[in-house]
Amino acid sequence: MNNDEKIILFQEMAFNHIEKEVQEQVEQYKRSLKQMYEEQKETKRKKASIEVETEKEILKKESNKRIVQKQLQQQRSIYKKQQQLKENVFKQLRERIEQFMKTEEYISLLKRQIDKILTIAKDEEVMIYIDENDEELIPLLEEYANHSITVSTRPFIGGTRGVVQSRRLLIDQSFLRKLEDAQANFSFDYTKEED
């Protein structure tokens, strides 16, 4: 083999070796790029996932906030309606009390209340009060009880009050107290009626 052939062979071997090295470097570079691409893709996917979860949380919080605001509005509306209904109930109750106070049953009730006051007081001195609206009943009630009866300076709608001074005892059978107790303990029952 002559020198020219040796040079050509050496060139071919060098080119093959260089081409092989370049091919390996290109393949390694491709793998490196592919790995960087996959890592970048995974990073972006994780970041997007976090953003989606963050947005979900924000939307969930906003939704919950709107729900709470709606519930509060509904509760306020229900409370207002309940107050209106409660006022109507007690307005009607006062009207019925006024009607009841014009009956014989009311006079019988006053007599029973006076009996109760006298029983509680026993032999001690007791002041019996009636409301100013019942002033015309004093003669009838005094005759019945054989005891003096006084018109209260503080209105209490109807009924009686008794004061046993020696025991500092107030026997309050007034309609005002009963109404106040009823209003304080009044509530709406939401239990569903059975069919």
Give a brief rundown of this model:
The chain has 195 residues and is α+β, with helices and mostly antiparallel strands. Helices cover 69% and strands 8% of the residues.
How does the overall form come out from the CA principal axes? rod-shaped
Order of helices and strands: HHEHEEEH
Decide which structural class fits the backbone: alpha+beta
* Main pleated-sheet profile: 4 strands, mixed
Which residue ranges are poorly predicted, with pLDDT under 50 across at least 5 consecutive positions? Answer: none
How much of the sequence lies in strands comes to 5-15%
Q: Going across the biggest sheet, name each strand in turn.
A: 2-1-3-4
Mean pLDDT: 92
Q: Terminal Cα separation, in Å?
A: 116 Å
Number of domains: 2
Helix content: 55-70%
Q: Count of helical segments?
A: 4
How many E-type strands?
4
Output the radius of gyration: 48 Å
Describe the protein in words.
By secondary structure, the protein is an alpha+beta fold. It has two domains: 1-100; 103-185, hypothetical protein PF0899 fold (2-Layer Sandwich), CATH 3.30.2320. It has helices at 3-100, 104-121, 138-145, 175-185, and strands at residues 127-130, 149-151, 160-164, 169-172. It has a four-stranded mixed beta sheet with strand order 2-1-3-4, with helices on one face. The longest helix is centred in the first third of the chain and has 98 residues, at 3-100.
